[in-house]
Design a protein that fits this description.
about 425 residues, binds uridine-diphosphate-N-acetylglucosamine, 4-stranded mixed β-sheet
Length: about 425
């Protein structure tokens, strides 16, 4: 197993470029299953999760090839298997998204239920409710979703989501793009990743409007052609780099940032005392300079669906708050169990009390190095940030979680002057 050895207490300096978004790439790659001609998706990050999804797609008879520019070519003209086994799905929850495209293309699918995960129970009931409304016959048996289509295709319908689930929104849109008739999806997720995903589908001929609002309208088409699309930059990676600069009193420039999508994160770090300069000021491909103060000011934060503060940035924001002046209160509103980093941050000298999903962080003047263990993807990022701020040499163990969702974050931080080495844990 690999770990990072981090010598903390140094500030960061220089420029760093953000990779393509993991959470855009996964549904976009999945949606190429709907396309009857070969697709080319560019700016796909090299990650354990994208690699894993591509192998799962290969098991359906799809061919895929990645070139040296991070372009992925996918040929889903022929689908020879419609089974996603437990062994596959348990490794990555997002694999459940293959359900709608397999049904739309082959009329049947058998996909394992994803089960629980480190950050909470994460059910898929809303995915199933949506697909049923669009004409799928679903049975859950032996841990598998056994699905068939009642007609020769999905049939458009009005669907209301009681909460704006990102995955359910994407699942329903994939079913509706090849449905007969119009689907009105109310209560849809408005996350930038959903918008990017819809733009990718539109590039293949899908008729979608209203993406980025809570009412998405999908006018079904009889087939999709070829998807040619460049994945948007990763706003969570950009936010993680902001948090690293903030916690280490650094000034860095982050390239390839979609500033429009980061308003809430930027706003909270501004409240904590960071200065931001972006050029162009708004847009999809800006350079963002972060100038952190000598010491941050404690700032309260509550996660929420977009345009609120993203739950995927909660742990990293908390890591920065551990060294702020004053006490901040952090509320996790999206996932019930997303505070596993708290005891590990406390091992690094943070003072955080946790009560029913609310963390009270009493900022410390400095943290102290310690060996710590990552429990999930964003928790790993928070521990790296805290270790960069701590005096002395820390070990961050179980970094396979980090490798699922950050492309070469260790190399990027090293380029910014961090002392961080990847080693094998003995
Ligand atoms: C996606 C992101 C994840 C992010 C999350 C919220 C990907 C691959 N992952 O996950 O990084 O943290 O959005 O922004 O894009 N829920 C139900 N029933 C359902 C589906 C969801 O109750 O059928 C609940 C979940 O338990 C959770 C909330 O809805 O409390 C939001 O989850 P959702 O938006 O679906 O997250 P994911 O799409 O799994």
């Amino acid at each position: 197993m690999e770990m990072f050895v981090i010598e903390g207490g140094h500030s960061l300096k220089g420029e760093v470029a953000v990779s393509g978004s993991k959470n855009c790439s996964l549904p976009i790659l999945t949606a190429t299953l709907l396309c009857e001609r070969p697709s080319r998706i560019s700016n796909v990050p090299y990650l354990a999760d994208t690699g894993f999804l591509l192998s799962l797609m290969e098991s359906f008879g799809v061919s895929q090839k990645r070139d040296e520019n991070n372009d992925v070519l996918i040929d889903a003209r022929s689908i020879t298997s419609t089974v996603a086994s437990y062994e596959m799905v348990r490794k990555m929850r997002a694999s459940v998204l293959v359900l709608a495209p397999l049904l739309a293309r082959a009329g049947e699918a058998k996909v394992s239920l994803p089960g629980g995960c480190a950050i909470g129970s994460r059910p898929v009931d809303l995915h199933l409710m949506g697909l049923k409304k669009l004409g799928a016959d679903l049975k859950v048996q032996d841990g598998y979703i056994h699905a068939t289509l009642k007609n020769s295709s999905f049939i458009g319908a009005d669907i209301e989501l009681p909460l704006p689930s990102v995955g359910a929104t994407e699942q329903i849109i994939m079913a509706a793009v090849l449905a007969k008739g119009v689907t009105n999806l109310f209560g849809a997720a408005k996350e930038p990743e959903v918008v990017d995903f819809c733009k990718a589908l539109i590039s293949a001929g899908a008729k979608i409007t209203g993406h980025g609002t809570s009412h998405v309208v999908i006018d079904g088409v009889s087939s999709l052609g070829s998807m040619v699309y460049q994945v948007a930059p990763d706003r969570i990676e950009a936010g993680t780099l902001i948090a690293a600069a903030a916690a280490t009193a650094s000034t860095i420039t982050i390239k390839n940032v979609c500033v429009d999508d980061m308003a809430s994160v930027i706003h909270h770090f501004e409240k904590a005392g960071c200065l931001f300069k972006s050029s162009p000021e708004l847009g999809e491909n800006s350079e963002l300079m972060v100038i952190a103060p000598k010491r941050l000011t404690a700032t309260n934060m509550e996660t929420a669906a977009h345009p609120g503060f993203p739950t995927d940035m909660q742990a990293q924001f908390m890591a920065a708050m551990t060294v702020a002046q004053g006490t901040s209160v952090i509320y996790e509103r999206i996932f019930e169990n997303r505070m596993m980093h708290v005891p590990e941050l406390n091992r690094l000298g943070a003072r955080i009390e946790l009560h029913r999903g609310v963390a009270t962080v009493v900022g410390q003047e400095s943290l102290l190095a310690a060996p710590v263990m990552a429990t999930d993807l964003r928790a790993s990022a928070s521990l790296i940030i805290a270790a960069l701020a701590a005096q002395g040499q820390s070990e961050v163990r179980r970094i396979y979680h980090l490798d699922r969702g950050y492309e070469a974050l260790d190399k990027k931080l090293t380029k910014l002057g961090a002392s961080l080495t990847r080693c094998t844990q003995t």
